[in-house]
From TrEMBL:
SUPFAM superfamilies: Pyruvate-ferredoxin oxidoreductase, PFOR, domain III. Residues 13-244 form the Pyruvate/ketoisovalerate oxidoreductase catalytic domain. This is Pyruvate:ferredoxin oxidoreductase, gamma subunit. GO terms for molecular function: oxidoreductase activity, acting on the aldehyde or oxo group of donors. It comes from Sporolituus thermophilus DSM 23256. Keywords: Oxidoreductase, Pyruvate. The keyword Oxidoreductase applies. The keyword Oxidoreductase applies. Gene3D superfamilies: Pyruvate-ferredoxin oxidoreductase, PFOR, domain III.
Amino acid sequence: MAKITKIALAGEGGQGVQSIAEILAEAANEEGKNALYIPNFGVEQRGGVSIAYVQISDGPIGAPKFQKADILIPLSPRAVRRTKLHAGRNTVYIYDNSLIQEGEVNDNIVGLQYTDVTPPNPTAGMPNPAEAPVGGQPDEDLPQDMIAGEPKTVSFTVPGPGVDPADIPAYVKRVIPIPANDIAKNELHPRVFNMIILGAVIAATEVLPLDTIKEALETKLGDKFKTNPELRDMNFKALERGYEIIKGSM
């Protein structure tokens, strides 16, 4: 039976968690793999913690959701608490150890945020989610401002000073910190924060080539890249930076 790589990402609204998941799924499909991406905005929807479930495999994928993740990436203190049930003994746990405070993301700059995402049909051809193992909060309908319309300026606030390592489950396979917020803010641009995280996911999972992710980004943001080639360079630098940090830690 083909191995299924199970990835769970969680973060505050505006951190681009769903965008990361969509790019992963699109890149996996381009590689000829099966991929399933399920967004979960929980009962809070905008302004709350959102979780993205991604599964990638060379074979069939059964249940739309899963209990334990192979790769778990919570990007805020609240996300750490919301995803504890997805941490298991075989989980590689990646978290942002920057001192995250309040931030603002402007969609007219660079990067990929949730307003750029085309929500998938998460259960097409799949078993009934009610009959499958699930975790976290129930799925809710996507807010309309996340579905259509022109990109907006998105503000997000991460409660508290950042993720406390003491809150990370001690029984996971491995814990890898990455100062993604600090790197984005000090070396690149806050807008490419989630590209750093995407690079980290690619390095940790080893199921997709980095070049395929770049091709998926070209497809998604090609018009923006043509208008301003510097945006391509910054996004790719962020992607490579996250990839290199995790590769150096594995």
